[in-house]
UniProtKB/TrEMBL annotation:
Chief place of localization: membrane
Organism of origin: Paenibacillus flagellatus
GO cellular component terms, A-Z: plasma membrane
Name of this chain's protein: ABC transporter permease
Taxonomic lineage: Bacteria, Bacillati, Bacillota, Bacilli, Bacillales
Recorded topology in the membrane: Multi-pass membrane protein
Signal peptide positions (record): none
Transmembrane portions of the chain: 12-30, 73-96, 108-127, 139-160, 181-203, 263-282
Protein's UniProt keywords contain Repeat: no
Annotated ranges, domain ABC transmembrane type-1: 73-282
UniProt-listed PANTHER family: ABC TRANSPORTER PERMEASE PROTEIN MG189-RELATED-RELATED, POLYGALACTURONAN_RHAMNOGALACTURONAN TRANSPORT SYSTEM PERMEASE PROTEIN YTCP
Length: 297
């Protein structure tokens, strides 16, 4: 049956709105890529929108040869890998205990956990705690404070409770205790939720710049996101204060073909690549993994 005129109008409006939303989402990324591949000084003249006007790889050459940025990439990669493994491992173990109906007082424990999702300890008390624990200016300040995620624990807990009890009973009959059951039965069945939460956790670690800006003074421990934030702040300050006069700018133009903005955009593109490469491999787990959190007991 031919759709009614009102239905066709509705469908047309919905498609137009979705196209506009898709464009608004994708264009900033595309423009950043275009600027990163355009000559820096030409970009400063404006008008670079959908395609590089003067194509150049100079920005990427400088970024990839910057020892400080490369060190930042190493720190970010190490933090992401170690942090993701530790957080997922500790959170899954905690969630398995919370999913056991025989755990006495689990309702109270759950209440205490949920409260921490709405009320934090505050920036200053947290800062003092970090210093008292000896984590200040240490790599482990990236790992220890985020070892357990309550949000991830709730999703893990819901997933674990959906596993048929008969499987665990069979493992117990075979002589497995709680630990062996968790490692040999529960975790192998939890691939979708582990993959989904691992990606979320990895992205959170990879994109975080705030922790290092507060708790790290050692320049060798700064992740690349914090270095990028410093570059953005420097770029904004330079534009607002107009630190270089026209004569100085002409002298700089004779010596270089890049600007702070062009280098910043190139850095942003390089930082984004790892996430883009990893995403396709875990995308198939998303629907099943995310829907787990919507199930009610």
């Amino acid at each position: 049956m031919k759709p009614a005129f009102e239905d066709r109008i509705y469908s047309f409006v919905v498609h137009v709105l979705l196209l506009l939303l898709a464009f608004a989402t994708f264009y900033p990324f595309w423009n950043s890529a275009v600027v990163s591949f355009n000559e820096g000084l030409d970009t400063s003249l404006g008008g670079v929108t959908f395609w590089p006007r003067q194509f150049s790889l100079e920005n990427y050459r400088i970024v990839l040869n910057d020892a400080r940025l490369l060190q930042g990439f190493v720190v970010s990669a190490a933090r992401t890998v170690v942090g993701t493994v530790c957080t997922i491992g500790m959170t899954a173990l905690f969630a398995y205990g919370m999913s056991r109906r025989e755990l006495i007082g689990r309702g109270y424990y759950m209440t205490f956990c949920v409260v921490t999702m709405y009320f934090s300890g505050g920036l200053i008390p947290t800062y003092l705690l970090i210093r008292s624990l000896g984590l200040f200016d240490s790599f482990w300040v990236f790992i220890v404070p985020s070892l357990v995620s309550v949000w991830s624990m709730i999703i893990f807990r819901t997933f674990f409770r959906e596993i048929p009890a008969g499987l665990e009973d069979a493992a117990r009959i075979d002589g497995c205790g709680y630990w062996a059951t968790f490692l040999r039965v529960v975790l192998p069945l939890s691939g979708p939720v582990i993959a989904t939460l691992s990606l979320f956790t990895a992205i959170a670690h990879w994109n975080d710049w705030f922790v290092a800006s507060i708790y790290i003074n050692n320049q060798d421990l700064l992740p690349v996101q914090t270095l990028l934030k410093q570059s953005l702040d420097s770029n904004i300050a330079s534009e607002q204060l107009g630190q270089l006069d026209s004569a100085a700018q002409s002298q700089v133009a004779k010596r270089q073909t890049y600007t702070t903005k062009s280098l910043t955009m190139a850095t942003m593109m390089v930082i984004t690549v790892p996430i883009i490469l990893v995403y396709p491999f875990v995308q198939r787990y998303f629907v099943k993994g995310v829907l787990v959190g919507s199930l009610k007991e």
